[in-house]
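Side project, low priority. Logging it here so it doesn't get lost.
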Amino acid sequence: MTTTPAPPKAPPKPTWDPRKPEPPFPWLRPTIRIRLTLLYGGMFLIAGILLLSIIYLLAAQALREGSSVSFQVTGSNLKLFSENCPQLGDAGSNQELNAMLKECTAIQQQHALDGLLSRSLLALLGLAVIAFAFGYAMAGRVLSPLGRITRTARAVAGSDLSRRIELDGPDDEFKELADTFDDMLERLQRAFTAQQRFVGNASHELRTPLAINRTLLEVHLSDPGAPVELQQLGKTLLATNERSEQLVEGLLLLARSDNQIVERKPVDLAEVASQAIDQARGEAEAKGVAIRGKRDVAVVQGSGVLLERIALNLVQNAVRYNVAEEGWVEVTTEVQHGQAVLVVSNTGPVVPAYEIDNLFEPFRRLRTERTGSDKGVGLGLSIARSVARAHGGHIAAEPREGGGLVMRVTLPV
């Protein structure tokens, strides 16, 4: 008894966005630089407090030892006066005078210790501020290679595998990390380049025989004397050949859209969406699907051909995967929070939330594993996601209440 292998799981969603802007209050982030600064400053404070305590205890001990010498005042008609101890003049006997002298000496010792402590604390506070500032500057200098590595990683996450860190300086742990990261990028770039070259070459090689097959089939179908069975077979083969051509074109576009867009021009998403609607309007009218929506001006920098492919794929999917009666597709464009947004919503079958990620995988459809549907070759959403990433944006899907999907494409303006 054979068991059907479980379908491969969709890759996990990234937990960070390389295009995410910096927070408004970077000082509140517990960065390594802040933590190192607190570590340096905290160690200085602890050492300063220990040193201050030792000096205070030693000074107190020295004052006690210096005042431990006993003395007695004897004689008659003695008058002692001190600004710090004015009560000495009120002594009526030698015994009272000696007691007042000891009390006055103890008070002066405590005043001296208090003054030493207060001045030492002020000096420690000032030095602590200097230590924290110096620690912050030194932490930034030490961690500057790490910031360079982070910036390169963000550029690579934006599909620019040609970037390298090329860190110079001493042969320390940071340089070892940077060199390892550069080696990894080199291998990744070779792997991606080889994969794209293979897909491109294979697609180009398949184009010629498919074009020949289409021509031969059309010639045979144009013969009025051909038997009905042969014409029916020719139509079936022609439809299969057309599907294969769509697959090849999709593979070519998918391989090309995975690269970063080099030549960028201003493109209005409203115009792109309108052109996509015009191309899909005939199919929508045949299926009884109404297309509506307000399209405001939303200009982005990118490739008009690839952006039109995003809109066309989304609109075509929304039309094809719709309800049989009174279906509709809503296409809107606008600018929100400094980003251009294209939203395509439609009525249709209920889509479970756990199957959303599978829709963006090549050759995957809702509740189907491979090809076998007349609604496409299963590359539309994969191409849309690749094109969005190449433009520095992203695409997200969510189930619509009552059935259908809401596809949202967000691109930087």
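Brief comment: The chain has a mean pLDDT of 78.
Revisit when time allows.
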